[in-house]
Amino acid sequence: MVGKARSSNFTEAEKIDLLRLVRPHVRVIEEHKHKHLAIVGKNRCWVAEVEYYSALGGERPPRTAQGLHTLYKRLKENAKQELVQQQRAQPEY
Fold first, then answer.
1. 16-39 tens-digit pLDDT
2. Residues 72, 54, 21: CA angle, nearest 5 degrees
3. pTM over 0.85
């Protein structure tokens, strides 16, 4: 059984670049409607993000829309977890 080839890990610079590129499109990407038009809009947004991301150049390996979307979801989840931990660590007055 042959699986998919695993892409290389994202560097910190790549993660920051992705967040900068996604920022203007957050309203579309984070829309919680599951209607056909919303899904099509999100997919178009991610395809555009791949083009912008690839245009940044450098020694980056090629990335897919699915890979960038997965990274974005992981970064968002990690940020939420950090926020919860910070809130737990602060003393209540």
1. 999 999 999 999 999 888 899 999
2. 45
3. no
